[in-house]
Amino acid sequence: MNSILPKLKNGFKNNEMIKESILKLIDKLSLNNHLLKDEYLMIFDNITFEETTYLYQKAYEAKIPYYQNRVFLRALIEISNYCKMGCKYCGINSSSNSIKRYRLSVDEILECCRLGFSLGYKTFVLQGGEDSFYTDDVLIEIISKIKLENPNTRVTLSIGERSKESYQKLYTAGADRYLLRHETASKRLYNYLHPNYMSFENRRECLENLKEIGFQVGAGFMVGTPTQTNDDLVEDLLYLKKLNPHMIGIGPYLCHEDTELRGNISGTLDQTLVMVALTRLTLPKVLLPATTALGTVDMTGREKGLKAGANVIMPNISPSENKKLYEIYQNKICTVDSSDLDKDNLESKVNSVGHVIDLGVGDYVDIERMVESDR
Ligand code: SAH
User: pTM of this prediction?
Assistant: First the structure.
């Protein structure tokens, strides 16, 4: 069970006074990009569907000065579903016996990038479980070959926790960005969701290290994980404000029935959209994807995400036979149909909500110039 954002469901309606206070807090957040803990909590405890229209409009407006109505595309390649970690929510964790494991070879990954490049993508995101096959040397080979073959592109890694030395080598080899969701900023919830050999502190240290090295860094969290509270969500926003990452991935928790957390309810579209919008208002310059998980809870979830402040979409260009096997949660979109590979289709979805696709590399607004001249 989760008990977050309790008034979002069941047709709750606030009296005028509470409604006014929420709208005022949204205005204050839009203006200052910061609220006190109790102020965030007031929104979480009381927001109803009615106030979300205003919230989403404000969040949309907040990205306009930096990114206008542009949507950046990142080609996602799921390189391996082998994982040595035991995240209890994740369908490919080390204790899952029900899935067939796969990993892509160096050549297969390069082939995916060639396909992506020919489709016009300028960022390749290599995501996977923590698979010891991908040593520093193997990754250095992959990264440097991608960069050599596809000039003026960006390589993003999302392969979990590694040592600072390892991150440094990967950066030196040409990797530009790294996605490592903090998952939750609440130590209690982190410990509930992970086995005791995984460490809340280590994950945060990894994020610090990645920033120090110079990566564009992505943090992020799941919405609606079992036992999550509004206090936990406040912690997420306060932590993100302090970390100030370049990217933030937010998706609903989707219960996987072959994990230890089976039988729990999943996070919802509305809960996630509220968190996306509040995140945009808290960090207006951040690159914020309308995640695949958001598109999985609702057929037009990603489009709704764009209207609520998101500005990135990550089409999955993994080989079709692997897409289904990378089952971090069930019923993932685009595992059966490959509609995202059809760029016209994706473009018309994006256009349908008043946005346009930008096929540039899509760096974080403040470092665009620095990266262009430095690398
Ligand atoms: N091994 C990498 C990549 C993990 S998959 C890493 O540790 O960063 C990317 C993200 O998917 C995770 O960070 C997590 O937030 C999300 N995820 C995993 N299982 C999920 C589930 N059941 N529902 C929703 N999101 C999930």
Answer: 0.96
Give distance in angstroms: CA of 371 to centre of ligand 1. 28
75-80 and 70-73: which strand pairing?
unpaired
Q: Which of 2, 162, 221, 328 to mutate to test the pocket of ligand 1 (most atoms within 8 A of CB)?
A: 328
Residue 368: per-residue pLDDT: 62
Mean pLDDT estimate for the chain = 95
β-sheet with 312-313: strand ranges across: 312-313, 70-73, 356-358
Task: Report the alpha-carbon angle 348-108-76, nearest 5.
Answer: 35
The reply to whether 273 falls in a domain is: yes
We report the CATH number of the domain holding residue 230 as 3.20.20.70
| Rounded-to-integer distance, Cα 120 and Cα 110, Å | 15
Ligand 1 atom 19: residue of nearest CA: 90
Q: Whose CA is nearest to atom 11 of ligand 1?
A: 328
Q: Is residue 1 predicted with pLDDT exceeding 70? A: no
Say if 2 falls within a structural domain. no
In a domain, 313, yes or no: yes
**Cα(285)–Cα(246) distance, integer angstroms:** 8
Residue keyed to tokens 């070959």: 145
Total number of domains constituting the chain = 1
